[in-house]
TrEMBL record:
Residues 44-83 form the Helix-turn-helix domain. This is Excisionase family DNA binding protein. Pfam families: HTH_17.
Amino acid sequence: MESIQIVSLSVAELQQMLDKCAQDAANKAVAHIMAVKHDPNEELTVADLADMFHCSKHTIYRRIKGHKISTVKVGRDIAVKRKFLDLIKKPVVTDK
């Protein structure tokens, strides 16, 4: 890390340096996010989905059943492929 003498900088120079640091940090953050790619076939358990959506496991089970989403058995739990997340987000509409 390099050190600088702030006293000898003008306000414009300091602002320019801060803007460059902020832009570099933003670029690094975006690069990191873009590097994390999600496999659409990744399997997420009902417990994972409930944590992700901040709801109960019962709600997730209801939405899986209501939207007829295919599942995979994982031990004593079931899992759903990541590509079905958009369907799980939608509430189930029941005819009354």
